[in-house]
Amino acid sequence: MFKLMQDLLTEISREATTDVNLPKGPVAEGEKVIGQIMSPELRGLFVYRERVRQQLSEKVENATSQGLDLLEGSPEHDPSTCPSCKLQRELRGMDKLLKFINEFFWLGVEHELSAEARAELLDGSAIGIRTDWQIVSILPKHSVGVEIRVIKVGSECEISIADLLRPSRN
Length: 170
Hints:
By secondary structure, this protein is mainly alpha-helical. The chain has a domain at 24-38 and 52-138. It has helices at 2-15, 40-65, 83-112, 115-120; strands spanning 31-36, 126-130, 134-138. A hairpin with a 3-residue loop joins strand 2 and strand 3 (134-138). The longest helix has 30 residues, at 83-112.
């Protein structure tokens, strides 16, 4: 666990000074600004999260656009040497990392908020990040998301990358 945290801190400090993958959306109608991310570390975590999300999305897209059969199986199948299995292990690892970073980021955002702002979220509102690092509350509404799920029955190789393109929050 320590190596993971050390690597994460290194990435956060590297990303804290970049101006790539910054929040771009303006505050929309029905959203209310309830705070602002001031912490350079939390800003770096946001940027790192977006970079990992892009990398994972690109890996999946490249594999499918190249016609790579991620789920090829055979009686002689050896998961330790199978390129598809290796790619799947890598994708699963990236997906787990992204989920961890995402939860860690939103926990940090909630800790940046005042007690009054956190109380506003008790009505079921979601939170989002907008231009200039503004934290907004978003009234609940029906949402449409994307889920990618690739499964081949009977194969020893199986992949399930859910919610890849849909963050758990806005």
